[in-house]
Amino acid sequence: MEADELMALVADGDQKAFEELYGLVSGPVFGLVRRVVRDPAQSEEVAQEVLLELWRSAARFDPRRGSALAWVLTVAHRRAVDRVRAARAAGERERLEARRAHHPAFDQVSEEVEAGLEREWVRRCLDRLTALQRQSVTLAYYDGYTYREVAERLSLPLGTVKTRMRDGLGRLRDCLGGTA
Questions:
Q1: DSSP per-residue letters across the chain
Q2: Name one Pfam family in it (predicted).
């Protein structure tokens, strides 16, 4: 049987006809919905809604206005577009609410000034280190090298670098008031 004949039987409540119609249209319905919605889980949900609507509203199908498959795919397309629009609207509502609710938890200017002062304080303390200590600390903490990599870059034994680092960090801690 073709989809048009099956629709007439489904409109009369024929479950076997619906099973057959389902087999004919479920693939095209899911494919169309998947192209519009894109998300697989959402697409499955929308396709299921369309097929359920098909069972409930088969009596509304008018064969004089077009084929059953065209009617089913039109219903599927409309439902998929509705889902996409609803998701976009929900996302926009969330973004607007997030913008309304956004209040800086701090005074940005004072935070920037304080960070600048802290950087200057650290620079002054680094200047108090020996050149060798400053070089080791800078490579490790500002350039991101491991102690082993610092030793390789400076062509020094690892133990020497560790000693410089320990002594340099101790002096920094003392200079920064024990907060380092």
A1: --HHHHHHHHHTT-HHHHHHHHHHHHHHHHHHHHHHH--HHHHHHHHHHHHHHHHHHGGG--GGGS-HHHHHHHHHHHHHHHHHHHHHHHHHHHHHHHHHH---SS-HHHHHHHHHHHHHHHHHHHHTS-HHHHHHHIIIIIS---HHHHHHHHT--HHHHHHHHHHHHHHHHHHTTS--
A2: Sigma70_r4_2
